[in-house]
Amino acid sequence: xxxxxxxKRQTFWNKVFNPSFIMVYAAILIFLIIYAFGAIxxxxxxxxxxxxFINMFLDNxxxxxxxxxxxxxxxxxxxxxxxxxxxxxxxMIIAYGTGVLGIHPAICIxxxxxxxxxxxxxxxxxxxxxxxxxxxxxxxxMFLARGVCSLISRESLTxxxxxxxxxxGWKIYFKHYVDGExxxxxxxxxxxxxxxxxxxxxxxxxxxxxxxxFGRNIYAIGGNEQSxxxxxxxxxxxxxxxxxxxxxxxxxxxxxxxxxxxxxWNLSLQGGELEAISSAVIGxxxxxxxxxxxxxxxxxxxxxxxxxxLITFNGNLLSWWGKIATGILLLIxxxxxxxxxxxTTRKKI
Amino acid sequence: MSKKKFxxxxxxxxxxxxAVVAELLILLVCLIKRPDFFKISYQPAxxxxxxxxIDIINRSAEITIIALGxxxxxxxxxxxxxxxxxxxxxxxxxxxFMRWDVLVYNTPGDYTVKPFALAILVPLFVCVLMGMFNGxxxxxxxxxxxxxTLVLMVCGRGVAQIVTNGKQFTTQYSPxxxxxxxxxxxxxxxxIITILVIIIMYIFVRKTAFGTFVESVGINRSASRLAGIDAxxxxxIVYAITGLLSAISGLIYSSRIMSNDxxxxxxxxxxxxxxxxxxxxxxxxxxxxSLAGTVIGSIIIRTIVTFVYYFGIVSEAxxxxxxxxxxxxxVLQSEPVRNYFSKKFAKxxxxxxxx
Lengths: 349, 355
Prior knowledge:
- Chain A is mainly alpha-helical and 349 residues long.
- Chain A contains 15 helices and six strands.
- In chain A, strands 1-6 form a two-stranded antiparallel sheet.
- Chain B has 17 helices and four strands.
- Chain B has a two-stranded antiparallel sheet.
- The relative contact order of chain B is 0.19.
């Protein structure tokens, strides 16, 4: 009995100190350090309020949603550069459909899902069956989606439809109990549809990766595609479906972005694919595949949003310092990551 | 006199063949729709040659120069995402020296305050350092190339903004104009620079052992280390070369617009350069590379854009059109399709021999 429990404890500690989790801990730790720094410096002007914290989710929900699909693609050892373009295309379809053609936005969104998932599946099939590198395939997909965006319109189109306004305006306010009645928290903090979509996608992604056969196949393919094939796992189907799922996430991110800015523009979200990729990487996903965690991605998104928040609170720094800070942060994380992976592989030998 | 046996199946198996076929097909369509497409005229007033073909090569200069460095990077099995940002950095630094008056002395119009050589040499030097930084992360730190170069890709534009305090300058300094808009032997200067870069790269890579080192490290790094090649040094040199070439490309770009543009200079150049290399037949997994293929790939990309402009297809369609043509080229070049074609040709040959 004692023996059994001790071995159980050992596996528990092994699980906790799993190299893929250490990255998540490092991300959480650095997030806490930066947050504590912000709290000390700007605590008096409202850095520590619930509103600031929730806004970190709200302002980056679309990147977060996209990062969920991206994490899965990266775990298979692939990459998808088309996500931002597909998200931009979604916004364009909604804007053009509702504004110019007068179609109900729900149908536009449905159509976007068909386009996005279709493109994802097509790219997945090209990557797997024609053996074209993912980087090139999805780059072509990106050019295609951006090109179609520009074909629809070169100018920014506003989205004004009561249905969209209702969705975007839907909020749940945080309230607390004061003197026998529920009062809104001051400063006002609320969660909206984007927040719920973001958290829901993270949870769904976590569930798929950890609790389903499909998720295990993803890890197996990323670990070693050849062995996965020899084990009889459906490599082709899994890879194609992962790109399809990423297409779904991109369209959902596009919907979230459309709700956030209420317009469609062919150049919106430029470089967004790298935001999604770097969020996943900061959260501990390895680009070589096989390692990654959805909770890490959540922390990665938060970490990337806390820096602009700090810069906003400072008020004197110009926004391009944000780019440099993000780059330095990325450098710190990949250094930790490389150190850990080098250390663990050395231990194995 | 030993003559190489002409074998159709070997040729159709090579990727460059399909790249050349694609380029010729596009040009053929151009020629059919516009018989004067190949016409090149000489303008004595400016002393330059004009024509669509010249224009295609002239405008492809920036991508060609970067793609040459990218070829070596990809031959190592890596990718360099930072080249676009380095283009912006080079332009920003050059313009900073060019407009030293505005930034430091507040005596507008005083362009001779700083020697012109600094405006050219400092950007080159800084970009070489940044390239070496990439190489250091990848070679010494063993970090994945995409992520390691992502750092500078994100940072680089920020650095370019800080160099110029986020301002955009224009300059009228004529020696600087020569780089992008001048001409030599009746050819636009960017073409001359590109040809020079191609020749130097060719000599450096093929007439010394360096190209073989790169291929060897790209195929198997530990095996090359055991064979006595300093893989780390090779990696750092290759990324430094790419940095240098990005800086040259950045100088050409800023000289064309006579200004710096930290947000849009070199935007998506990394993507175009990688595409050019892959269309040219270099494998993304590393190993053998082909400089000639890269040049063809870069010219294909520019030809597509010119094609769109020339035929009055709405300019909004450029990107979608580019994507479609590239998709066709990539599918033609993919392994299963090439194998299918080479098998077919091999069969035909056998039939002919049998008869």
